[in-house]
Amino acid sequence: MVMRWLRRPTPGEWALLGILVFIVPAVASDFWLVQVFARAMILGLIALGLAFLAGFAGIVSLAQMTIAGVAAYTVAIFSTTDPGLQATLPPEITVILALSLAVAVASFVGWLAVRTTGIYTIMITLAIAVTFSIFARQNYVVMGGFTGFTGVAAPAFAGVPLRLPLPFYFLCLIVTVAGYWTIRHLRRTPFGLSLQGIRDGARRMAALGYNVHAHRILAYALAGLLAGAGGILMVWFNTRIDPSTVSVMPVINILIIAIIGGLGHPIGAFIEALIFVLLDIFAADLIPGARERFNLLVGVIFLLIVAFSRDGVVGIWKSYIRSMRTREPGA
């Protein structure tokens, strides 16, 4: 069973995994390992949940970064050394608690949102995201208020300090591969096929006896698990968490990453996350004024890709491959 599952990845995916495991750590500096690749994997993991919801279940949720923030704040509250009401717990317990809370909150968001469709679902999840950001900003007793929490470093595991660049890169890679292959495999399972059926015709699936609300809530919970894992890695990456991390702009950034990457394509979230990180870091050096107009630059790219491909960068790549094959002699 395991071997049959492992044979599912394509040769290209195995080649990409080999590059990330063997070549990137050998040639990349600590800056590229952490600030570029690890950060891209974290953003891609959070966006992967949204791509899964939108691509497989037909749901657009703006609460993914909020759920990541719930997990990040949980880790910060139970591991920071800042004075206050925080109680230190073992890292393993903290991670399990953070993931559990993320799934619980995501399920609650799903329970609220499944009663609506379209623009109303977007507005409800946006309202939840804004409310959580304001609550985190105004609550000093538990959430740390405007300053949040600092000094939240990744713990050591089996004697290996995960805060170091190489171990942290491999930690992000392991979580990313697990999340990617889970979503990739899920679309061929009965649950994944049911979700796609609900996306294409919810009333028809309900008439066939499927519990549409339960399927959608479970999809929210799975997306919340991905966001929670991304949130834990995010707080360890930044070594801090504050309300700006879960404000409206990061929420929109996750939406942009998921859409430009290509909804329904798990790999698209990570490709666009890498492009987003590269633009954020290097655009100021290549394009005059890009630092001050970074959001404008991302917005223009977003409009261009949406205008020419509804399937994001993955759709553009597939269209290019198809056009090349039609040009081959005898095609």
Furnish the topology, listing elements before pairings:
Blueprint lengths: L1 H5 L4 H17 L2 H28 L6 H14 L13 H23 L5 H20 L10 E2 L5 E2 L2 E2 L3 H22 L3 H11 L1 H6 L4 H27 L1 E2 L6 H14 L4 H21 L7 H15 L3 H16 L4
Antiparallel strand pairs: 1-4, 2-3
Helix pairs in contact: 2-7, 3-7, 3-10, 3-11, 3-12, 4-5, 4-10, 5-10, 7-10, 8-10, 11-12
Structural features, described:
With 331 residues, the protein is an all-alpha fold. Helix content is 72%, strand content 2%. The protein contains 14 helices and four strands. It has helices at 2-6, 11-27, 30-57, 64-77, 91-113, 119-138, 165-186, 190-200, 202-207, 212-238, 248-261, 266-286, 294-308, 312-327, and strands at 149-150, 156-157, 160-161, 240-241. The protein has a two-stranded antiparallel ribbon. β2 and β3 form a beta hairpin. The longest helix is centred in the N-terminal third of the chain and has 28 residues, at 30-57. 39% of the residues are buried. The mean pLDDT is 85.
Shape: globular
Largest sheet: 2 strands, antiparallel
Instruction: Report the uncertain regions.
Output: none
- Total DSSP helices: 14
How many β-strand stretches?
4
Look at the helices and sheets and give the structural class.
mainly alpha
Order the strands across the largest sheet as they lie in space. Answer: 1-4
Give, in order, the helices and strands: HHHHHHEEEHHHHEHHHH
Q: How large a portion of the residues is in β-strands, by DSSP E? A: under 5%
Amino- and carboxy-terminal Cα gap: 37 Å
Range of helix content: over 70%
Radius of gyration, in angstroms, nearest whole number = 20 Å
Overall mean pLDDT stands at 85
